[in-house]
Specification:
The structure is a single chain. The protein is 16% helix and 28% strand. With 509 residues, the protein is an alpha+beta fold. It has four domains: 66 residues, no CATH class; 54 residues, no CATH class; 186 residues, Jelly Rolls, CATH 2.60.120; 175 residues, Sandwich (Jelly Rolls). Bound molecules: 2-acetamido-2-deoxy-beta-D-glucopyranose (NAG) (5 copies). This is Cupin type-1 domain-containing protein.
């Protein structure tokens, strides 16, 4: 097999290269074989290429001189995947079931004889055979959570785990960091606080959260999949899964935030003198004889059998509960989406969730073939998480750079300020993903609306496009544009595909 020949040739070449500077003299190679402790060092200078190896060693460490000068085998893979397409047209190349996908688009690129990681190549066709329009240097914008180490909880009984994305994984993501956390039935994320603001979206299951603010106002709420919470920096809080367990996403407003660096109540107790604890809490030191010696982090708990009303009542002090306009939760699961041709969106920002005063989020659902239109967010970075589906994104950064990425369920994305991007659904199921901004409002500029509201002769003179096209540019913001599940489609003119008429109506209303 040519593939194997090629590997062998490369390995052979490497050995020859490393053989060149090898010293001809060396000391004892293996005490276990030469034995006799205290024996004189052996001078092997007269015995070239005869290393003393351990029992069971076979073959020669070096190859023969006949190998010098080999340039390796220029093996060519026989199977060539899809890639005859016009590189600048940049159609999505679906390589999910291509046996031997290749870094080829039309005339550009060449085969890859290996070694290679085929599942990664198949998941990232726009990295393997990028569109001809990609150019220059754009920082990496993709981090699969599946590549982050999942830190397990403590105490056994499968209490849960957490894994994170921060600037260690994705250096460009300086304004926000993310954590994916799972709590088993009734398990806790230990009582804690931290230096960053914490925003959360519940992916599945349900949870009870509680917190106390600087005024002594208390807060307890029950949340389910699709809901949000927010804890300002420094506000101590607790999180307990219900008996169905929970998984949630956390976003912090510091790119280098580490989930391992939070301030835990167990550590607060373990790191202060017991006498101080006794004085502080006005008790006898014996009270603390069984406190945890180590942090608990994520651990199993007993079921909370109280109703929400009972729980709230039990923790309300003289300052009362947190006022509604400062609530730490938002029941986004109950918000109706805003639907447009091609998909829908739910937007939440400080105008409806005021305590999260710098977190703005849009949760998009994009139908197969449809696309989140080309846009940018004025002065804000964007943090993404893909909850479902397969999408591709081209990040364009002026003056001349662009790079295309492919995203799957569980991937984090990050687009720095000012760069434009689209999100195209390239799969057969809906793409669900979120855009999170550090911004007081969810705001964006739509490229189509911009040109639709620019004097038409300016657009025409600049881009050299027909007047008939300029007449179709929208004056409203579409957010999403419909498309076709046949990804070789190149004509998206109104009426040329299902739902296009709706799009025209929305664009000119
Ligand atoms: C809650 O109910 C369960 C089942 O009835 C019981 O085992 C548990 O002890 C109760 N927990 C509390 C805190 O009362
Ligand atoms: C909530 O309302 C109170 C009273 O009107 C006001 O002082 C406070 O600033 C508001 N909080 C937020 C986060 O808007
Ligand atoms: C919001 O976040 C941005 C980006 O991190 C920051 O520049 C800005 O100061 C923040 N605003 C507030 C009110 O925290
Ligand atoms: C997809 O569209 C192309 C033309 O754009 C057509 O040739 C092809 O047959 C279509 N494929 C399917 C599966 O409909
Ligand atoms: C694109 O589709 C429209 C609507 O079906 C049609 O009128 C137009 O001729 C097509 N354009 C091309 C270049 O085929």
């Amino acid at each position: 097999m040519k593939f194997a020949t090629s590997i062998a040739a490369i390995a052979g070449l490497t050995t020859v290269v490393s053989a060149r500077p090898a010293p001809r003299t060396w000391k004892r190679q293996n005490d276990a074989v030469v034995s006799e402790p205290g024996a004189d060092a052996i001078d092997n200078s007269a015995i070239p290429y005869a290393a003393v190896g351990p029992v069971g060693a076979q073959g020669n460490i070096y190859g023969s001189e006949a190998l010098l000068g080999s340039a390796g085998d220029s093996a060519k893979a026989t199977e060539v995947g899809p890639g005859e397409e016009d590189a600048d047209l940049g159609l999505y190349l679906d390589m999910t079931s291509t046996p031997n996908p290749q870094p080829i688009r039309g005339d550009s690129g060449a085969t890859d004889p290996g070694p290679r990681n085929l599942p990664i190549d198949r998941q990232n066709p726009d990295a393997l055979a990028r569109p001809g329009t990609d150019m220059g240097s754009i920082p990496n914008a993709k981090w699969p959570m599946g590549l982050s180490s999942a830190r397990p909880g403590t105490g056994g009984g499968q209490p849960g785990w957490a894994r994170q994305e921060n600037t260690d994984q994705l250096p460009v993501a300086t304004a926000m960091a993310g954590v994916d956390m799972r709590l088993g039935p009734n398990a806790y994320r230990e009582l804690h606080w931290h230096s960053a603001n914490e925003w959360s979206y519940i992916l599945s299951g349900s949870v009870r959260i509680a917190a106390v603010n600087q005024n002594g106002q208390s807060f307890v709420d029950d949340l389910q999949a699709g809901d949000l919470w927010f804890f300002p920096a420094g506000v101590p809080h607790s999180i307990q899964a219900t008996d169905e367990g929970v998984e949630f996403l956390l976003v912090f407003n510091q790119g280098d935030f580490s989930e391992d660096g939070t301030d835990l109540v167990s550590e607060l107790f373990a790191r202060n003198p017991l006498e101080i604890l006794a004085k502080n809490f006005q008790t006898d030191v014996s009270t603390f004889k069984n406190i945890p010696k180590d942090q608990r982090y994520i651990f199993n708990g007993s079921p909370d059998n109280t109703t929400l009303e009972e729980a709230r009542k039990a923790v309300t002090g003289p300052a009362g509960p947190l006022p509604a306009n400062e609530s730490y939760s938002y029941h986004l699961s109950a918000q109706d989406p805003y639907t447009v041709p091609g998909g829908s969106v739910k937007i939440v920002d400080p105008s409806t969730f005021p305590i999260a005063n710098n977190f703005s989020m849009a949760l998009f659902t994009i139908g197969p073939g449809a696309m989140r239109e080309i846009h940018w967010h004025l002065t804000f970075d964007e943090w993404n998480f893909f909850l479902q589906g397969n999408a591709r994104v081209t990040v364009f950064s002026g003056p001349q750079a662009s790079r295309t990425f492919d995203f799957q369920e569980g991937d984090v994305g990050y687009v720095p300020v000012a760069s434009s991007r689209y999100v195209e659904n390239v799969g057969t199921t809906p793409v669900v993903y979120m855009e999170v901004l550090q911004a007081p409002r969810y705001i964006d500029i739509s490229a189509a609306q911009w040109l639709g509201l620019t004097p038409s002769h300016v657009v025409k003179d600049t881009l050299n496009v027909p007047q008939a096209f300029i007449d179709t540019l929208p004056k409203t913001k579409r957010y999403i544009v419909p498309g076709n599940t046949n990804l070789t489609t190149t004509n998206f003119t109104v009426a040329s595909y299902p739902n296009a008429a709706l799009s025209a109506t929305s664009g000119s209303s």
